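hi! just following up on the protien thing from before. the input was this:
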Amino acid sequence: MTADPIKEALRRLPYGFYSITSRRGDEVNAMVGNWLTQVSYEPRLVLFGLSKIAYSHELIAAGGVFAINVFNKDDSEVIKSLTKAHAKKPDKMTGVIWTPGPMTGCPVLEGAAAVIECRVVQLIDVGGDHDLLVGEVVNALLLKSGDAHTSLTLPDLNWSYAG
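and the predicted 3d structure came back as:
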């Protein structure tokens, strides 16, 4: 067992691994994230835990849109190139192949299996190091075959971002 059972228990929650893309005018970014879930059928809403110090936080708050790029397990190398923070690698979008999403203009990354475009409904400060980003789904693109079993998760990479 561990000295921190809360941390261990939280690490047992299954998490997907996505690239969240954003846009503010001509400025675009892609980050990786995993704290994501659907929270409403009507309207279709998603909730994402967005780090307050992430560059994407600034873009999403100002631009009012974001997109969730879902990758298949076989395409994990594509998303790994986006794991560095903007502060450490400000040019990380250089060389990334993408097209603007039809509804939001947010990057649709080459290699993504599906993309969910969202309009920001609310960005909620809950007092922690992450804000809760609520987005209304305004469009989706299905780019490769797959389902929840083929989608990339943190356990597939033997990584954890919890606890």
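The two ends are 15 Å apart (CA to CA).
The chain has four helices and nine strands.
cheers
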